[in-house]
Amino acid sequence: MSAFDLASFIANNKEDEAQKIIHNAMKEFDNIAISFSGAEDVVLIDMAVKAKKDIHVFSLDTGRLHAETHRFIEQVRKHYKINIDILSPDREALENFTREKGLFSFFEDGHKECCGIRKVQPLKRKLATLDAWITGQRKDQSPGTRNVLAFAEKDGAFSTDEKDLFKFNPLANWSSEDVWNYIKMFDVPYNELHLKGFTSIGCEPCTRPILPNQHEREGRWWWEESEHKECGLHIGNLIPTAQQ
């Protein structure tokens, strides 16, 4: 692959053309993968499969997911006839952590350490093998941290001195309604927990249904302040907020 021209890609794509962004990102990079966990990500998979059959998809299994989420991952794998690379935490790091702090330390000292071991470290190992990745992030998912989100960017959190990593967020300007309209229109699989009042779904202890008129992110880490509601997978989102 020749050097990727980010400025040219942004100039030649429109932020409201998600399928085109995905298609062109996969044309630019052979070594690119879709990060899959929720409803937005299956929209990405659906669009990507329509553009290219041999897509690369990975998902994080933290060891604390709902049984419904495991069934959802398998449903997506079979529906699209794709392989999904399931990433797990490092066994030794996780065993040491739970031995020292137990299984619910995040209720006392915050979720960052647990998420770091169960999510960020496995993601970092995976991203080290890629040139680019595609995420289902939306600006309105977490107004305190994702209000500035480009549809294509250099990943400032996971790039290294040796290699730039590029990140595509084709649904940056979509709303939740846009996502669910697409899911209904194209009969896209979704997690059955959505039928039980769950909106943003993560690990079982840290996720609960929301009440009417609550923001979708309020079901995650509800015991913490809203500006802390990133698990570290998209830690770059916190940078603009921290500088304010």
Structure report:
The protein has 244 residues and is of the alpha/beta class. It has a single domain, classed as HUPs (Rossmann fold). The protein contains ten helices and six strands; from the N terminus they run H-H-E-H-E-H-E-H-H-H-E-H-E-E-H-H. It has helices at residues 6-11, 18-28, 39-51, 67-80, 91-101, 106-109, 112-127, 143-146, 176-185, 238-242, and strands at 32-35, 57-60, 84-87, 132-134, 152-154, 166-168. The protein has a six-stranded mixed sheet with strand order 3-2-1-4-6-5. Strand 2, helix 4 and strand 3 form a beta-alpha-beta unit. Helix 2 crosses helix 3 (39-51).
SSE inventory with pairings:
Elements: H1 6-11, H2 18-28, E1 32-35, H3 39-51, E2 57-60, H4 67-80, E3 84-87, H5 91-101, H6 106-109, H7 112-127, E4 132-134, H8 143-146, E5 152-154, E6 166-168, H9 176-185, H10 238-242
Parallel strand pairs: 1-2, 1-4, 2-3, 4-6
Antiparallel strand pairs: 5-6
List keywords for this structure.
244 residues; 39% helix; 10 helices; Rossmann fold; 6-stranded mixed β-sheet; alpha/beta
H and E order? HHEHEHEHHHEHEEHH
| Secondary-structure-derived class | alpha/beta
Shape: globular
Strand portion, in percent?
5-15%
Tally of separate domains:
1
Uncertain regions spanning at least 5 consecutive residues = 237-244
CATH architecture type: 3-Layer(aba) Sandwich
CATH class: Alpha Beta
Report the sheet with the most strands, covering strand number, pairing sense and barrel closure: 6 strands, mixed
Family: Belongs to the PAPS reductase family. CysH subfamily.
Subcellular location: Cytoplasm
Function: Catalyzes the formation of sulfite from adenosine 5'-phosphosulfate (APS) using thioredoxin as an electron donor.
Pfam families: PAPS_reduct
